[in-house]
């Protein structure tokens, strides 16, 4: 029942890629150099301002070019530490904007849709936009949702459950782990930017805590409202006073600023072992004290742009285009008015090249600090940056953020009108100087990866390695293998598995299986249904269905030939996959595997449990199967294939075994292929029923 997943995984990965990468490609005549246009000139209207007695400050920019209006509300508190109730701000943010004390959640959302408007909330912000003819009503709805939110215990419980479920899904996610560890190392666990959310901290939050948090922190004493669009100042002033004038829970809030943790004293690798990782997440990082008001700000933007701001950056050209280590390598150099910015250079790379990627990161950082940047490259980088900047001016949210930036960062009023000139004034010497000032010679290199595959080579870099767990607690170097019991063989391990899941006689009696699962794809707005059918010895079928969208993909193998159907196109199965599928001898490969093809390699840790690692050879191709030492169950399979000139490893984790007609079946399956992952949760499993030979045609 297990070996069909490799083929299915390829199909699902293709579907996921299709959803995430749809785009339009224009045909360009590259034989002619485009003519240079006039130098762009930035003209931003100075906002007209007024304040309410409760402290709310309002900035209005009239723009009558289009019949639209936008409202951006910002509660400008200092960073808030929530301690053992971390997550309370996320819960509150999710509850806001879903109705008011006088309008139900459904009626509220229906009216927003009817108006063709947008309205969103966070725990310290809100944004609304609409046609200007609805400007009055959308402002009224925004104010009502802000001042009189429908905060109910029922919604509170729902949002807590969703947040906890999200944490569970991110438990093995390298991005989530890396972000958490980097935050703690950069700022400290007790800092607002370093604390992290856990199931325990979420469960510490009560409904009354959320109400108190709202009353204390969601108030107008530090609030700004930016209004941009086809409006009249006098009318805006009148309406804002009408709808926000009663916002009376204003209190002065004293939130002391906390300093960041010190930067590393020496260059070092901070390693987190994540045994399920098929790639390593690498971040080269250090804290920086850079503000938008600093003279270095514009030079810092260009320095970062050259190092890792996009496809023309040093990092991308080296690690992606030259070495082929990754899909992308980038950097960021963040400004913070609190002095809490960070430099980051990052990529996710194949396990086999983790050490080499670290070396190349350091080489490129050294390059920008010691070698003058090429004059043409600097010129091109400026032109690209300016172009992107100009395009961003089309968004009302961008204009609103500019207005707030001037206010909050104590910037001169001409900051943005002189912005492009200051970008163009950045010199080659400025880039070298700024790189040396803000990019440390002693960075932290935070790596989350599969230690058993990457640590030996990382140690050869000569950089000291400090070890941390997934919550940034210092730990010892992980132990990857344990002594095997004397005389134990791979065949013994597989026999134990057969016995554990039902016994040889029971498994041989399984002729068909039907599994219906809910599929979770991170970031996807829906959860499709997977219907998987199998018939001994080698027939298989899988169909992915989404509500309201029908069949997204169907894949069949009838024992001799196979195909994949997607978007009305029927694609024949590749010859190598046909031969692989035809070679299967049953639904449980452990019953028919050739002893000569299997080797017991080691005892390793998988998700904190001891597991036997069995290597299975099929011609020149090796796959790995991991069996729980205690239960005998199959915990994981691992295989590597070539795709677009790169090696791609697929890891499938099995858990939540339940008995179905005397057979223990895993009801949870998580498939990870490169940076993509999706989880199957079976809600219906049938053995020897619900499947016929016609299902595989």
In short:
The chain is of the alpha+beta class and 697 residues long. It has 20 helices and 26 strands. Helix 11 (314-322) runs antiparallel to helix 12 and helix 12 (354-370) crosses helix 16 (428-438).
What is the SS-derived class?
A: alpha+beta
Radius of gyration: 29 Å
The main sheet comes to: 13 strands, antiparallel
Helix content: 25-40%
* Count of alpha/pi helices: 20
Mean pLDDT: 90
Query: What spatial order of strands do you see in the largest sheet?
Result: 19-18-17-16-15-14-26-25-24-23-22-21-20
End-to-end Cα distance: 19 Å
Strand content: 25-35%
Low-confidence stretches: 1-9, 11-30
What best-fitting shape do the alpha-carbon axes yield? globular
Q: How many DSSP E strands? A: 26
Feature tags:
697 residues; alpha+beta; 13-stranded antiparallel beta sheet; 7-stranded mixed beta sheet
Topology:
Blueprint: H1 5-20, E1 48-51, E2 57-62, E3 68-75, H2 88-95, H3 105-114, E4 118-122, E5 125-131, H4 135-147, H5 153-169, H6 174-187, H7 199-204, H8 207-217, E6 223-229, H9 233-244, E7 268-273, E8 279-288, H10 297-308, H11 314-322, E9 326-333, E10 341-350, H12 354-370, H13 375-392, H14 396-408, H15 419-424, H16 428-438, E11 444-449, H17 451-459, E12 465-468, E13 474-475, H18 490-501, H19 504-508, E14 512-520, E15 529-535, E16 539-546, E17 550-557, E18 562-566, E19 569-572, H20 575-582, E20 598-606, E21 609-618, E22 621-628, E23 634-643, E24 646-660, E25 663-673, E26 676-687
Parallel strand pairs: 2-6, 7-11, 7-12
Antiparallel strand pairs: 1-2, 3-5, 3-6, 4-5, 8-10, 8-11, 9-10, 12-13, 14-15, 14-26, 15-16, 16-17, 17-18, 18-19, 20-21, 21-22, 22-23, 23-24, 24-25, 25-26
Helix pairs in contact: 2-5, 2-8, 4-9, 10-16, 11-12, 12-16, 12-17
């Amino acid at each position: 029942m297990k070996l069909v997943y490799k083929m299915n995984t390829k199909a699902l990965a293709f579907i996921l890629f299709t959803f995430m990468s749809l785009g339009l490609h224009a045909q360009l005549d590259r034989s002619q150099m485009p003519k240079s246009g006039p130098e762009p000139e930035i003209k931003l209207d100075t906002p007209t301002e007024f304040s309410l007695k409760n402290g709310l400050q309002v900035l209005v920019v009239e723009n009558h070019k289009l019949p639209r209006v936008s409202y951006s509300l910002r509660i400008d508190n200092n960073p808030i530490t929530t301690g053992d109730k971390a997550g309370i701000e996320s819960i509150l943010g999710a509850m806001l904007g879903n109705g008011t004390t006088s309008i139900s959640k459904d009626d509220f959302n229906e009216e927003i849709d009817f108006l063709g408007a947008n309205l969103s909330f966070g725990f310290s912000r809100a944004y609304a936009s609409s046609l200007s003819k609805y400007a009055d009503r959308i402002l009224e709805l925004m104010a009502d949702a802000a001042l009189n939110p429908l905060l109910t215990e029922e919604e509170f419980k729902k949002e807590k459950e969703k947040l906890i479920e999200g944490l569970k899904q991110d438990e093995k996610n390298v991005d989530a782990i890396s972000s958490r560890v980097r935050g703690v190392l950069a700022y400290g666990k007790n800092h607002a930017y370093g604390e992290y959310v856990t199931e325990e901290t979420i469960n510490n939050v009560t409904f009354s805590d959320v109400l108190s948090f709202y009353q204390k922190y969601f108030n107008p004493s530090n609030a700004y409202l930016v209004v941009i669009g086809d409006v009249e100042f006098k009318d805006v002033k009148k309406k804002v006073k009408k709808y926000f004038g009663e916002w009376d829970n204003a209190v002065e809030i004293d939130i002391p600023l906390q300093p960041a943790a010190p930067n590393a004293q020496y260059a070092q690798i901070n390693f987190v072992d994540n045994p399920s990782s098929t790639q390593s997440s690498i971040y080269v990082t250090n804290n920086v004290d850079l503000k938008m008001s600093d003279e270095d700000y514009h030079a810092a933007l260009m320095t970062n742009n050259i190092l890792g701001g996009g496809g023309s950056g040093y990092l991308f050209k080296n690690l992606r285009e030259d070495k082929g280590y990754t899909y992308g390598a980038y950097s960021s150099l963040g400004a913070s008015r609190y002095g809490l910015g960070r430099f980051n250079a990052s990529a996710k790379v194949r396990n086999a090249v983790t050490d080499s990627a670290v070396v190349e990161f350091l080489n490129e950082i050294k390059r920008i600090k010691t070698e003058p940047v090429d004059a043409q490259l600097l010129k091109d980088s400026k032109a690209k940056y300016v172009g992107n900047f100009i395009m961003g001016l089309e968004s009302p949210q961008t204009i609103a953020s500019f207005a707030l930036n001037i206010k909050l960062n104590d910037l001169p009023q001409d900051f943005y009108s002189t912005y492009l000139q200051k970008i163009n004034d950045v010199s080659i010497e400025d880039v070298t100087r700024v790189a040396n000032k803000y990019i440390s010679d002693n960075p932290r290199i935070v790596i989350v990866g599969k230690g058993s595959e990457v640590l030996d080579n990382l140690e050869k870099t000569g950089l000291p390695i400090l070890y941390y767990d997934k919550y940034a607690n210092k730990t010892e170097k992980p132990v990857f293998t344990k002594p095997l019991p004397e005389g134990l063989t791979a065949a013994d391990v597989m026999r134990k598995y057969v016995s554990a899941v039902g016994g040889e006689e029971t498994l041989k009696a399984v002729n068909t299986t039907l599994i219906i699962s809910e599929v979770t794809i991170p970031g996807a707005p829906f959860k499709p249904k997977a219907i998987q059918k199998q018939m001994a010895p080698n027939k298989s079928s899988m169909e992915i269905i989404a509500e309201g969208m029908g069949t997204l993909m169907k894949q069949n193998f009838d024992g001799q030939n196979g195909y994949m159907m997607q978007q009305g196109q029927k694609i024949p199965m590749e010859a190598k996959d046909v031969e692989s599928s035809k070679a299967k001898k049953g639904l449980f490969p452990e019953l028919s595997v050739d002893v000569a093809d299997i080797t017991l390699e080691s005892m390793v840790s998988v998700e904190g449990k001891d597991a036997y690692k069995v290597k299975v050879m099929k011609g020149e191709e090796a796959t790995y199967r991991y069996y729980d030492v205690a239960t005998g169950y199959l915990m994981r399979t691992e295989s590597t294939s070539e795709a677009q000139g790169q090696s791609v490893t697929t890891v499938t984790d099995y858990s939540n075994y339940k008995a179905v007609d005397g057979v223990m079946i895993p009801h949870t399956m998580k498939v990870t292929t490169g940076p993509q992952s999706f989880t199957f949760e079976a809600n219906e499993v049938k053995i020897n029923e619900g499947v016929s030979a016609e299902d595989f045609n």
